[in-house]
């Protein structure tokens, strides 16, 4: 496929994905806040079937919101459903996965020293990874373990750890962290499609038929909604972190993803408790301190590159730059799949390297660059380039 067209298509899909994700996450966080912030209404409203109410002001207007215990006296002519935000986010994300990683699997998806060397086989593994992860979650959320809060927490942590370790074993570093986020997002979308919406449809059908709503479905939908609430921040963490080689290129990246996701979950719990009227700032402080501690520990063990024993000559640096950097970071990249230099960075000479020293050093030490190491950069060459990047231009 023409790389120029591919770049424009990728931009369009990123744009649509961000828009739909904002709509989905925004609606999800709003309704969680709304549900947890409801207060007991007066006797008249209780008699009319209201189970909770909330008053709010926004955009120059005052809103009165009420939630019925079961059903209103009469069903409204128009009932708004919140589902296409989730579906659209998943669909645009899947399209982006296909365009960015599957159509350029040789440079973006394949782990150069991994067990899968064929781009086609790696694509199959990617699809299998997402389907298997979803199947494991569905088996868990439908099992008797779902009734135990401790089992839920441990089960989700084990699933996340296994998914992270597997992704970094099978795929390139950047693709791996995206796959962890994609799996969690797939689980969230499936929760809407397989649990929440069917439960809501069953509730409406029962109200219209005048029969008791199925309690089991309602309980399962509430559980899935709660899981989605806590998974939201880990998904965002994975999606944003794919722009941070320091994280996804770390030797223990899979473990960092798990640890940082737990700090995000802890932060989410602070806000959930706050919405219930229980402000516990210590939870947020602990989350922040854990994040700082994880970042500090990770920075101590990030680089596995041994510095060269003697200074390198500029001619050697020029050769390394030409061979391993210039194929992509040039006005007209010779590497298939690129219409322009990634990130807009041009690396043609040693001076270009020193001009972007911090970026170059991080990308090299994390082994994120060269992308997939398709050019076969040796550890000695990597070490030499890192040493040169430390030289002030």
List keywords for this structure.
single chain, 393 residues, mainly alpha, 2 domains, two-stranded antiparallel sheet, 2 strands, 65% helix
Give an overview of the whole structure.
- The structure is a single chain.
- The model has no long low-confidence stretch (mean pLDDT about 85).
- This protein is mainly α.
- The radius of gyration is 25 Å and the shape is elongated.
- It folds into 2 domains: about 220 residues, no CATH class; about 80 residues, no CATH class.
- The longest helix has about 35 residues.
- About 30% of the residues are buried.
- A hairpin with a 2-residue loop joins strand 1 and strand 2.
- Helices cover about 65% and strands about 5% of the residues.
Q: How would you sum up this structure in a few lines?
A:
With 393 residues, the chain is mainly α. It contains 15 helices and 2 strands.
SSE pattern: HHEEHHHHHHHHHHHHH
Termini, distance in Å?
Answer: 39 Å
Largest sheet: 2 strands, antiparallel
The proportion of strand residues reads: under 5%
Percent helix: 55-70%
Write the layout of secondary structure elements.
Layout: H1 3-37, H2 43-47, E1 50-58, E2 61-68, H3 84-102, H4 105-108, H5 119-141, H6 149-170, H7 173-209, H8 215-241, H9 245-248, H10 253-275, H11 281-300, H12 314-325, H13 350-355, H14 357-365, H15 379-389
Helix pairs in contact: 1-3, 3-7, 5-6, 5-7, 6-7, 6-10, 7-8, 8-10, 10-11, 14-15
């Amino acid at each position: 496929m023409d790389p120029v067209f591919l770049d424009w298509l990728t931009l369009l899909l990123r744009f649509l994905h961000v828009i739909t994700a904002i709509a989905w996450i925004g609606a999800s966080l709003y309704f969680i806040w709304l549900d947890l912030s409801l207060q007991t209404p007066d006797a008249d409203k209780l008699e009319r079937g209201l189970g909770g109410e909330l008053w709010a002001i926004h955009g120059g207007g005052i809103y009165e919101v009420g939630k019925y215990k079961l059903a209103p006296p009469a069903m409204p002519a128009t009932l708004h459903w919140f589902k296409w935000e989730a579906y659209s986010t998943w669909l645009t994300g899947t399209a982006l996965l296909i365009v960015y990683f599957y159509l350029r699997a040789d440079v973006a998806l394949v782990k150069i020293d991994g067990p899968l060397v064929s781009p086609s086989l790696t694509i199959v593994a990617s699809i299998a990874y997402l389907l298997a992860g979803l199947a494991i979650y569905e088996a868990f959320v439908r099992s008797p373990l779902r009734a135990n809060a401790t089992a839920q927490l441990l089960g989700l942590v084990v699933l996340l750890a296994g998914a992270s370790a597997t992704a970094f074993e099978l795929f390139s570093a950047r693709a791996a962290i995206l796959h962890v986020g994609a799996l969690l997002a797939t689980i969230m979308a499936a929760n809407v499609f397989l649990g929440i919406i069917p439960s809501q449809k069953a509730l409406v059908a029962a109200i219209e038929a005048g029969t008791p709503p199925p309690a089991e479905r309602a309980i399962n939908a509430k559980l899935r909604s709660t899981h989605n609430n806590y998974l939201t921040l880990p998904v965002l963490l994975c999606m944003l972190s794919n722009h941070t080689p320091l994280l996804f290129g770390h030797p223990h990246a899979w473990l960092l993803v798990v640890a940082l996701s737990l700090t995000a979950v802890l932060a989410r719990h602070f806000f959930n408790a706050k919405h219930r009227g229980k402000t516990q700032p210590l939870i947020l402080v602990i989350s922040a301190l854990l994040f700082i501690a994880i970042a500090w520990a990770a920075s101590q063990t990030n680089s596995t590159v041994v510095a060269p024993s003697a200074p390198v000559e500029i001619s050697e640096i020029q050769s390394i730059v030409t061979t391993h950097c210039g194929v992509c970071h040039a006005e007209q990249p010779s590497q298939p799949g690129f219409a322009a230099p990634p990130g807009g960075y041009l690396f043609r000479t040693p001076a270009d390297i020193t001009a972007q020293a911090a970026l170059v050093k991080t990308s090299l030490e994390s082994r994120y660059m060269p992308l997939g190491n398709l050019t076969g950069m040796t550890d000695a060459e990597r070490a030499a380039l890192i040493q040169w990047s430390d030289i002030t231009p």
